[in-house]
């Protein structure tokens, strides 16, 4: 069987003409008619929110914040407030994600949540240490 030029059977980009549904647990593309993920066997429901959306949104927001901070557009008091707020949000969101991972039995959700919570707690610890609190 010959392949079409420019395409590959494995490891290539997904064809934009083919509709896919991303798994909310692992982000693997699946057929729209599938009810479970072919990779992690997680449930594919219409109302489920993909973890990859959260990660992409956080990475986009963080890169913009970092660019403004490095350029010097953010003042010291705003920088302090934003760092504290980001640490609190990361800690809470990480804790909630880790609990969701424990409830659903998904190691990926638990690991991402635990890392987010630890990173947020480390941010708050270093911020308090720098300020002498």
Description:
The protein has 133 residues and is mainly α. It has 2 domains: 13-48; 55-131, no CATH class. Helices cover 56% and strands 3% of the residues. It contains 3 helices and 2 strands; from the N terminus they run ββααα. The chain has helices spanning 51-71, 76-104, 107-131; strands at residues 21-22, 29-30. A two-stranded antiparallel sheet has the order 1-2. α2 (76-104) packs antiparallel against α3. The longest helix is centred in the last third of the chain and has 29 residues, at 76-104. The radius of gyration is 20 Å and the shape is elongated. The chain starts with 20 loop residues before the first strand and ends with a helix. Mean pLDDT is 76; it is low at 1-9.
Short description, anyone?
By secondary structure, the chain is mainly alpha-helical. It folds into 2 domains: 13-48; 55-131, no CATH class.
Major sheet summary line: 2 strands, antiparallel
Structural class: mainly alpha
β-strand amount:
under 5%
Please tally the β strands and state the result. Answer: 2
Shape: elongated
Spatial strand sequence of the major β-sheet: 1-2
The succession of helices and strands, N to C, reads EEHHH
Termini separation comes to 69 Å
Low-confidence sequence ranges: 1-9
Query: Can you count the helices?
Result: 3
Query: Any idea how many domains?
Result: 2
């Amino acid at each position: 069987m010959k392949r079409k030029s420019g395409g590959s059977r494995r490891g290539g980009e997904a064809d934009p003409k083919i509709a896919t549904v991303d798994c909310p647990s692992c982000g693997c593309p699946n057929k729209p008619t599938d009810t479970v993920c072919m990779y992690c066997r997680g449930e594919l429901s219409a109302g489920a929110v993909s973890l990859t959306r959260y990660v992409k949104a956080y990475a986009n927001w963080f890169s913009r914040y970092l660019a403004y901070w490095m350029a010097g557009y953010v003042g010291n008091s705003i920088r302090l407030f934003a760092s504290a707020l980001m640490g609190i949000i990361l800690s809470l969101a990480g804790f909630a994600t880790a609990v969701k991972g424990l409830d659903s039995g998904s190691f990926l959700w638990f690991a991402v949540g635990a890392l987010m919570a630890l990173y947020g707690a480390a941010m708050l610890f270093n911020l308090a240490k720098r300020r002498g609190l």
